[in-house]
């Protein structure tokens, strides 16, 4: 007997496939700060989450909740314009459901993006970081409960949550375009409140460079389903415990707006590099 989440997944995939005829090996999760990439996609199919039967709907204004299928500078992609968050009240299984849909649609490489705060004194507001590893401090795991055997193994390996070969490609793209790309460890808290000074100190002590409220559940599910993952973070605020200043969502979105062109350039070039790599690998 199938679980509720398996039925939701099967029904969502069946609906999407009934509406479109599209496959792509590269998927993109457009988090806060990366929405401008959607404007660069030559969209052929656009499916709102709200059109998919019983599909969870985002409640954050700047996360639209749409599946976009099209070409990013000639490369076929499937993008999630906006995401779901744990702090919105979704279960881990619900908020990672869109990623499972992408996998069922043929995505083998997932590029996940987010906005975050930095505890690393060498990282500045407006910097972009490629995620090398993560720490799950959300108190939950999207694989908790009966395993979805049709999706992946009971105990998936997480020794390389973020593809090292694609991290190298991201560094190459950034170097060629004069983008100062950092590399570090992303920690995930539930949110929606930002962290305290003590929590920022704790995060730095345990080895985190940045902190956010997403990405980790999606990465776990993507790896469970055998996808390679690339993670990009836009640093929107500096979270140094001894010099901490109050920050608002308007402050964060202002940084997002300023750095969006750089993020778009980086993602466009990285998608092309990954596409070329995958093409060579199949020859």
Structure commentary:
By secondary structure, the protein is an alpha/beta fold. It has a single domain, classed as Rossmann fold (3-Layer(aba) Sandwich). It contains 8 helices and 9 strands. Strands 5-8-7-6-9 form a 5-stranded mixed beta barrel. Helix 5 crosses helix 8. The termini are far apart. The model has no long low-confidence stretch (mean pLDDT 94).
Level-2 CATH architecture: 3-Layer(aba) Sandwich
As for the number of domains, it is 1
With helices defined by DSSP (H or I, 4 residues minimum), what is the helix count?
8
| N-to-C span | 40 Å
Largest sheet at a glance? 5 strands, mixed, barrel
CATH classification, class level: Alpha Beta
Radius of gyration: 18 Å
Helix content bin: 25-40%
Oligomer: single chain
% residues in beta strands: 15-25%
